[in-house]
Specification:
With 170 residues, the chain is mostly helical. Helix content is 53%, strand content 0%.
């Protein structure tokens, strides 16, 4: 596994720094999934957990959609992988699920996130609210939360990848 991530700027303005760290963590997850087969990407970490690399990518597509579509711009975008009947559907991968679809969906949500965020200043408040708060969020808060979300799940991805083929690294 090679390291092809762009390091965040060391002396940038706040917005560039936040966007740089978010992209860094997005790229980290992509690297953790690189050069694996669909079967490997569907491999669960360890029983009884269903956590897999493909499941993490699907989950983060949902997270991008939630924070940048539903919360930031107030869009009524429905779920991609989960439902009321299966609230953890993003993590429930099957033999029919492919990396090509999961990756394309995730990248599409990232591009939409970037496009929506470009229309807001860091202190601008969201047009929507989350399921856990009726208060609007600043874009700064959303960026910080997204960095935290990716960083946490990249820790999971480290362990899953090491279990699959022994690959380690940042």
């Amino acid at each position: 596994m090679t390291n092809e991530r762009r390091e965040p700027a060391l002396n940038a303005d706040e917005r560039t720094m936040l966007e740089g760290w978010l992209d860094y963590h997005r790229e980290t997850l992509a690297l953790k999934c690189a050069d694996l087969t669909d079967a490997q990407l569907r491999t669960a970490a360890v029983a009884p957990s269903e956590l897999s690399l493909m499941g993490l990518v699907r989950h983060l597509a949902e997270v991008e959609r939630s924070w940048f579509r539903r919360v930031l711009v107030g869009d009524d975008a429905g779920p991609i992988y989960y439902s009321e009947q299966d609230p953890d559907g993003d993590f429930h991968v099957t033999e029919a699920d492919t990396w090509q679809e999961a990756y394309a969906t995730w990248q599409g949500e990232i591009e939409t996130s970037r496009r929506h965020a470009a229309g807001f200043g860091l202190d601008d408040l969201s047009r929507g609210v989350s399921r856990s708060s009726e208060e609007p969020f600043s874009l700064r808060w959303i960026y910080t939360h997204m960095i935290e979300e990716y960083a946490r799940h990249n820790g999971h991805a480290d362990l899953i990848r090491e279990r699959i083929d022994g690959a380690t690294g940042e």
